[in-house]
Amino acid sequence: PGWYVTVHIGSVPVSLMDSLDPEVPLALFTLLPHEHKMSVMHFLLRRHASNTEPIKSKEEMVFHCGCRRFRAPPLYSQHTSGM
What we know:
Strand order of the largest sheet: 1-2
Structural class: mainly beta
Protein name: Pre-rRNA-processing protein TSR1 homolog
Strand content: 5-15%
Helix content: under 10%
Function: Required during maturation of the 40S ribosomal subunit in the nucleolus.
Order of helices and strands: HEE
Shape: elongated
Largest sheet: 2 strands, antiparallel
GO molecular function: GTP binding; GTPase activity; U3 snoRNA binding
InterPro entries: Bms1/Tsr1, BMS1_TSR1_C
């Protein structure tokens, strides 16, 4: 924290570089060595009003969590208040 670095990235298409706004910061991130392991995460999902198709448990989906994106076969359960 608190350090400024210069990152050099090769093989970037010119079209991508042209689309970047130099006034907007570019965020870079990586995973720590142990962050490839399986974990349990709890999400509350809400279906969009236009979506009426059923979604099966264990059907692989793509999740966006902060700046990370990953594929996972979720298990669904009823959301309760815990009482």
